[in-house]
Amino acid sequence: MTVRRRIVRVTANFTRNLDGIEAFLVEGGGDLAFDSLLRRLSEEIIPTLERFPEIGAEFLARAPLSDDGKALFAKVLELLGPETGARQFVSGDYIILYATRSDATYLLAIRHHRELSFDFTAHWP
Question: Is beta strand 7-10 parallel, antiparallel or unpaired with respect to 104-112?
Fold first, then answer.
């Protein structure tokens, strides 16, 4: 049985996220961790998404409860369109958000789990 591979495309935002992860890891002395991430992306994650684009959990399966969240959720659904699905894939310390269409899979965003933080300075002058 031959599995049809779907092309995986990297978005500009995904590339910016990688730059941010590199800075985050290098600042913490994790130069080798970033090299490992790039190797894992090229040798494991992207080939897996090429063969099994539906492997990640549906990102939009759980609708938000707040009115603001519902409005943003509706906008995201509209932007993605009816033929596009949004999924998240967790690999080690990283969470990858990607979109699937019949023609390709688009890597939208990636975050290191420790990179997620609150910006309290934006709330108080």
Answer: parallel
